[in-house]
TrEMBL record:
UniProt-listed InterPro entries: STARD10_START, START-like_dom_sf, START_lipid-bd_dom, START_lipid_transfer
Protein name: START domain-containing protein 10
Protein's GO biological process: lipid transport
Gene3D superfamilies membership: 3.30.530.20
Source organism, top-level taxon: Eukaryota
Keyword Phosphoprotein: yes
GO terms of molecular function: lipid binding
Location(s), subcellular: Cell projection, Cilium, Flagellum; Cytoplasm; Membrane
Naturally occurring in which organism (per UniProt): Pristionchus fissidentatus
Keywords: Acetylation, Cell projection, Cilium, Cytoplasm, Flagellum, Lipid transport, Lipid-binding, Membrane, Phosphoprotein, Transport
Amino acid sequence: FQMRVGVAGVWEDSDYARVRNLCDGLDGWVEVYKKGNRSIYMQTIGTSSVTMFKAYVTWPDVSATQLFDTLHDADYRPKWDKHMTKSVDIGIINPNNDIGYYAIRSVTPVRPRDFVLQRSWLDSGKEKLLCSHSVCHDDYPPMAGHIRATTFLSGYLIRENGAGCDLTYVTHTDPGGKIPKWLINRVSKVMAPKVLDKLYKAALDYPTWKAKNKPNWKPWTYPDQLVDAPRISLVKCEPRDYIQDVQDESGSEEDNENESD
């Protein structure tokens, strides 16, 4: 999927199939965490030194549709994602592919990160996929004071399980800058269960919030609601490399690479 980075366009069935296979397969994955109904796996993909993570969890009291809506609803995101500092819906490629800008805060001395992401989704009823990867857009270069991060792939595979759902989440992101890769991998492993907890609570609270906030507005489900949405010109999404003033954020140069073990 690294070959897709920077390339904007409509996802095909074969793209979703690759994500589904990545979520369901165990080849190359090493289990690094297991507690109750949650498991976390990791593996190295290609030549990247940043690890890909996969999380699996079952939630008996969150329906597949409820979780899918929670992840999609941009108006709800600020209520549960406290790391987000800015979000812009740039436009749509078609009713199942859009592009947005997203900025997140960080802890000093690490500089904030920002992304331009294409989201692609497929809802086949009992199974739903929501995937993202980094692209470029002429109107959204890296914001001042931020470092542009790269998401090779982020994917949610949601399946109905009775009244609840099974979720498999894969993520492979390089935050850029000069943070040691071993530190990125270690923090990601620790944060993964916390991210699941936050998403679970957000999904539980979503129906009550949505009932009071544009309850009928779900353009990811009802494409006719996108009639006035800005259309993406792919000419503005040509891949490019940004020249950034990247400062050393790693602290001491004597950090031991072996600490990633």
